[in-house]
Amino acid sequence: MAISINDQEEGELMSEINMIPLIDVMLVLLIVFMITIPVMRHAVQVNLPQASAERLQPPPEAVRLLVQADGSYRWNDQTLSDAELEQRLEEIAALDAQPPLHLLGDRDVRYERVARVLAAAQRAGVRGIGFVTEPTP
């Protein structure tokens, strides 16, 4: 309730807001929340599975296959013929954890030689082939 001042006339409206009831309500709400929030428990019972702590095997090292400008193949710095290339591709395709095959084609090599490598890898069953390039400056 606001206190009227003697200088105001009886018919004039008061332009003051009475803050005391608002403060009382806010204090009551604060006390109610302080009491009820620690009692409330937001938890769901979940039966989590147990996991073993086995070490994972490191991924196999990538195989670098270079197709040189003259059309010859290099498998991790070893020169290969076409027959040896297909044999090596079949060997890595037979592994459980296949190493990725990184294919590096020389800028001046004929596309036919790179296409032969891709076809041989597909026939052998190699799943992961990546093309290695150099970024342009």
Protein traits:
elongated; five-stranded mixed β-sheet; 137 residues; 5 strands; alpha/beta; 3 helices; single chain; 14% strand
Structure characterization notes:
By secondary structure, the chain is α/β, with parallel strands linked by helices. Helix content is 32%, strand content 14%. It contains 3 helices and 5 strands, in the order αβββαβαβ. The chain has helices at 20-36, 82-94, 111-124, and strands at 63-67, 73-75, 78-80, 101-105, 129-131. The chain has a 5-stranded mixed beta sheet with strand order 3-2-1-4-5. A hairpin with a 5-residue loop joins strand 1 (63-67) and strand 2. Helix 2 packs parallel to helix 3 (111-124). It is elongated, with a radius of gyration of 39 Å. The model has no long low-confidence stretch (mean pLDDT 85).
Short description:
This protein has 137 residues and is of the alpha/beta class.
| Percent of residues in helices | 25-40%
In this structure, how is the largest beta sheet organized? 5 strands, mixed
Quickly count the helices.
Answer: 3
**Percent range for β-strand residues:** 5-15%
Secondary structure topology:
Layout: H1 20-36, E1 63-67, E2 73-75, E3 78-80, H2 82-94, E4 101-105, H3 111-124, E5 129-131
Parallel strand pairs: 1-4, 4-5
Antiparallel strand pairs: 1-2, 2-3
Helix pairs in contact: 2-3
